[in-house]
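Contributing new complexes? Match this layout with calcium ion.
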Amino acid sequence: MAIKGRLARSILRAGVCIVLAVALSVSAAAFRYDVVAPEGNVSYEVTINLSMDAQSFAYAGVQFTSTVSDPDSVVFVGFTNGVSGTQLYNTINNIPGRNSFGFYTSTNRFQDAMNVGSVKFTYFGTAEQTITIEMRIANFDEEGRARWITTEASYIVVNLSTEETFSQYDINKDGDVGLLDLALAAFAAGTAMYIDEDLGIMNPLWDEVFALDSKGGPVTAAMCDVNEDGVVDMLDLMEILRNFAF
Ligand SMILES: [Ca+2]
Ligand SMILES: [Ca+2]
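Output block (do not edit by hand):
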């Protein structure tokens, strides 16, 4: 009976914790966006595009903070934008896995819809990753003091695009650097970019597709020239061999 009582109490406590967690996440929901990036045996480049839709809302600046599920895996690359009339700041107050970035408007007052820019991350897909984007909007009060103001989820649009990226040595794009890549480079060995470098006559075989990679994409001699010296030869095979990775 006593065990049952303890069990009931701990279930009750667990229940309270769950309710509390839900309440917290709901109260923060207007400012937080979770984007989930996939797992897979390849490297990924994740781009999160941020747009503002604040037609009816004046503001002076916006601060975003990104937090990643696994700071050891997910690397913050940077924040870029092309918004005119704004001043960017990038990666302030950073701690591992948490980066702040955003922009100020040069007039201290801005009211419009616009593409804010994009934030980039990379990771190797051993596990699914979650990237949380938080947003704060600032304006100035009558005395010119900066202050954070209430923001609405609808003021921002978050779009995610994920792209697989491959090591240059992974010629068949299967996530490993191994014998298959070596075999492809060996097949292309002897092919040079120019038939006659002095006359500038390019070798049509250089960009000719001679095989398909594991994604159905083209494999050319140019792609096998991993040291980029204009010819596929033993040096490329050795470099692929040195970069064997499974
Ligand atoms: Ca490969
Ligand atoms: Ca080469």
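Reviewers usually confirm one structural detail per submission. For this one: The chain has two domains: 30-165, 179-242.
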